[in-house]
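[Meeting: bench + compute handoff]

Bench side (C.D.) handed over the final construct sequence. Compute side (W.E.) agreed to return the predicted structure before the next meeting so the bench team could plan truncations. Sequence as handed over:
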Amino acid sequence: MKSRTSSSLPVQAPPEVMAALRKRLSGRELPALQAVFALRATAQQVDNAITEWMAGTAGSPARFQILMRIWAAEGRGVPHKHIVAAMGVTRATVSGLMAALERDGLVRSVEGTEDRRNQLATLTKKGETVVEQAVQANRGRLRAAFASLSADDMATFTLLLQRIRDGFADGG
């Protein structure tokens, strides 16, 4: 059985597609398209791996993201609306995730003292344990995944990814 971490997206277009594209794309456009194929396949593989890693601890990357945000607040309540803004998702999505985290005993939400409509989330002891376990379990995995990159490589890689994101955000 194929592991979830393997990518089902091809890292390049089929040969017949590439041959047709070579006739229509410039010298700079063709490598850009090839980079997009590789980037998409890599992104899918990374997403699948992280989802698999989180399944054994926090349950999902989204749940882990919420738990980490609350954990980083070190006991100060985090308004649900800040979690919505940080994740860039709808209030309904966060409400559903928060309800599940509360049901699982990982998070507790209370009304804000200044505004009763403002829900403040804190971690329970069980939630703190889950975060610590997830961080510990995934430290080695992260090290292994990036073992072939030096610190300079990592800085360059991160910068290049940001530039690509900016290019797509600007409409390409």
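W.E. noted at the follow-up: The beta strands are 78-79, 107-111, 119-123. C.D. will use this when planning the next construct.
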